[in-house]
Amino acid sequence: MMTGLHGCSCSNHTTLKLASIPTFSSPLFPFKNPTFSFHKSPLPRPINALSSAIVQTTTTKAPQDQGVKPQWKATIDFKWIKDNKEAVAANLRNRNSDADLDLVLHLYDKMFTLQKEVERVRGERNAVANRMKGKLDPSERQRLIEEGKNLKEGLAALEDDLVELNDELQQEAQCIPNMTHPDVPIGGEDCSTIRKMVGSSPNFSFPVKDHLQLGKELDLFDFDAAAEVSGSKFYYLKNEAVLLEMALLNWTLSEVMKRGFTPLTTPEIVRSSVVEKCGFQPRANNTQIYSIDNSDQCLIGTAEIPVGGLHMDSILSDSFLPLKYVAFSHCFRTEAGAAGTATRGLYRVHQFSKVEMFIFCRPEESEHYHQELIKIEEDLFSSLGLHFKTLDMASADLGAPAYRKFDVEAWMPGLERFGEISSASNCTDYQSRRLGIRYRPVSEAQVTSAKKSKGNLAPPQFVHTLNATACAVPRMIICLLENYQQEDGSVLIPEPLRPFMGGLSVIARKSL
């Protein structure tokens, strides 16, 4: 999930040169975990779920030249918006959205009227063409030729106007956020409600250190060198911190795979259009996205984007739903404007590793899987012994795609506050309508008929998409260092992570 872990805005999008983009390898399993075997994955389907068997039909995609913004259309239900104008308007107010609903409806009515005019003129042109097929007096034929020519020119002008109007309608309508779950609290972030509280904050009999002091004393980070090499809000991990990052990633992947998720590593550069289709605005004034100069590409801020695009423009097989993925990626965010003690160190950075869960499912199942995702998050954080609370986020704190969002905030003793470590969002069909991802339900006719034909196929429907953070590494490192610090300056490693760190149980000061 992209929103939440980076709650700031910037006035201008940031651009990068292509040559400056590093490449990354997949995370490795540096140590054998005696309780987990990759070759005996408990997935409910073969691990090759990415094969073409899950896709019944795929639309042809036009080639896109680098640097040229692709044209795409979201399948927005404008009639539903018009019929439910008051509900949509209330939703915009509750979310503090600046989308212009009146303009959208005006453009829709205008386009509907223009479409009727196009159809009328096209019908007249066809009628003239049909009349010219028979025997005609030369003067009558010439008159029809002139009439046909005028109709053709008029039709071309109307069709150009229709394309331009449709583009304007799409641009405005794509600013309208998803509708909101009726149980979501209305208001700003302060109105979010506590869904669950787990554990209690640790009691220390010694002065508590924050992760920056612990990292310095244990030789785990180097922010100064990273600032010289890359700029502020970058960092080097060193020594046991590197092992801790790998342990968190591999432990999280193994735990989530046990729950039936297929593992992925994703591209970390994607087309701007895919970012937009997932509900983000890569070149808006408040963007978190790094855009690459002289291209139509961006660095990802979350694996939600490339995983969401995985089945773009496809009709999925009903028998393979739900599709559950757990993806490792590096994430890149501008984080402009973030400052102060609450965001220093590893808390808010430009680049970090993350494990993201993503589900494609049938519409009637999305609320069930939303509960499943937050349960997985809570189980992971509980097994690490963290004190945390789960929040049902208020309407004004929801990103545009989210129908409902649960955030998890963990206690960070060094910061003396709770800090967000994950979120889980149900985006219903908001993203799939933009990405063109549908499925074809098995109809009763297909079940009862031995023959398969187009006549007994159910019409395709848009899937629902959900995403959730399983592990955002820097903030997890903050939690572990600050909550497991000892009086002698060492840090204990939680039991579940030790097999992934070669059996290491404590991070101790280096001997001189």
From TrEMBL:
One Gene Ontology biological process: seryl-tRNA aminoacylation
Alphabetic keyword roster: Aminoacyl-tRNA synthetase, ATP-binding, Coiled coil, Ligase, Nucleotide-binding, Protein biosynthesis
UniProt keyword Metal-binding present: no
Record InterPro entries: aa-tRNA-synt_IIb, aa-tRNA-synth_II, aa-tRNA-synth_II/BPL/LPL, Ser-tRNA-ligase_type_1, Ser-tRNA-synth_1_N, SerRS_1_N_sf, SerRS_core, tRNA-bd_arm
PROSITE patterns named among the record's database cross-references: AA_TRNA_LIGASE_II
Annotated positions for site Important for serine binding: T469
Enzyme class, spelled out: ligase
Claim: Repeat is one of the keywords in the record: no
Residues annotated for ATP binding in this entry: R333, T334, E335, V349, H350, Q351, F352, E420, I421, S422, S423
Enzyme Commission (EC) number: 6.1.1.11
Protein's UniProt name: serine--tRNA ligase
